[in-house]
Here is the input.
Amino acid sequence: MAYVRVDENEPLEKSIKRFKRMVEKEGIIREYKRREYFEKPSTLLNRKKKALARKQMKKARKQYSSKGY
Here is the structure.
């Protein structure tokens, strides 16, 4: 679970940006941008590999938590 500790003198916008980055990094929520341009095949492949890695991590996390360790 992602959380951000906000300091007293820190602007709220900055802490929201940090939270948003953290959530995207953990793969909880991803912002999909419209792809109205050509993507190189290597870029497509890298994106698919990252999606597969996220899926496998999620599956492993689910299996680990269901064992009750």
Summary: The mean pLDDT is 83. The CA atoms of residues 50 and 56 lie 10 Å apart. DSSP finds two helices and no strands in the chain. Helices lie at 12-26, 41-66.
